[in-house]
Amino acid sequence: MGQSAQSDKGYLDGKVLIAMPGMEDQRFARSVIYVCAHSEDGAMGIVLNQVADQVSFEELLVQLEIIDETEAAHIAVDGPNMVVHRGGPVETGRGFVLHSADFYLANSTLPINDDVCLTATLDILKAIADGEGPQKAILALGYSGWAPGQLEAEIQANGWLHGPADPDLLFGADLDAKYAHALRNIGIEPAMLSAESGHA
What we know:
By secondary structure, this protein is of the alpha+beta class. It is 20% helix and 28% strand. It has helices at 57-63, 69-72, 122-129, 150-156, 167-171, 178-185, and strands at residues 15-19, 32-39, 42-47, 84-86, 90-100, 109-111, 116-119, 137-146, 160-164. Strands 1, 2, 3, 4, 5, 6, 7, 8 and 9 form a 9-stranded mixed β-sheet that branches.
């Protein structure tokens, strides 16, 4: 028990999961998930390429009473990345921010590696709204979770591929391109990976 997940071989924190074409759970079809934590206790991650199209970032800030509606009209959100992502089916009413390591809140921010952190408190949303947030960030509602051994079993059953994460995969604005990008990072052309073709 004394060893951390980071020092144990085989854990995937800081990597991405890429759904195989035969993924039976439609909530995760063609999804790319950044693994934030993975240990013998299970795993949690954030889907990087699905939009929560029911709500905008500004509307969410108003709902959470971080700003009022008058301020929402004038908010200076930096860059196009503040679309609200659908991070997964667990705790969908809660916001999770994956961000660059230039922003840190004591007792709130979980460093995943040297470059990426996760913060799930309202304070980071206030900082972003005030223009004082991290340089790069994506906001997701909800997360994806696996019980102990469940993710390993799904990988063994060919549900997921896994590979490296890079800044474009994490923070890039073109969500539609992320699936192909993640596959190319591990040397697979998306056209080669077809559920119907029967060969790879």
